[in-house]
UniProtKB/TrEMBL annotation:
GO terms for cellular component: cytoplasm. Belongs to the DTD family. Coiled coil: none annotated. PANTHER family: D-AMINOACYL-TRNA DEACYLASE 1, D-TYROSYL-TRNA TYR DEACYLASE. Its EC number is 3.1.1.96. GO terms for molecular function: D-tyrosyl-tRNA(Tyr) deacylase activity. It comes from the Eukaryota. It is an enzyme of class 3 (hydrolase). It comes from Rhynocoris fuscipes. This is D-aminoacyl-tRNA deacylase.
Amino acid sequence: MFCFRVRKILNIRLFEDDNGKMWKCSVKEKNYEILCLSQITLYNRLKGNKPDFHLAMPPELSKSFYMNFLKQLKNSYSEDLVKEGIFGKHIVVGIQNDGPVTINLESPVRDKSLEREEQTVPNME
């Protein structure tokens, strides 16, 4: 169900190798920890000067989606190296970005007739 996302998170080459060359190693190769947080604010559109979240997955579906994703990620990698936040809670996360790099990972849409606005439940692949 989450094969694309899990595979990409574990194998995308974002880190430097032992020689300092960037884009050579993955989380898996480096044996790094992964922190997963649910964050509805990442899925928004601007409506005037306000963010609009009505296209996000409904809360009654999103928690099980998140928990199933975490389960598959842990099963595919290492339960000890996958950390998680509490679903739906306001949290403060201290992060340090290394360089001006942000990568937005979206699953490919399989069927154009199932675009987000027409779906009741998003494509989970």
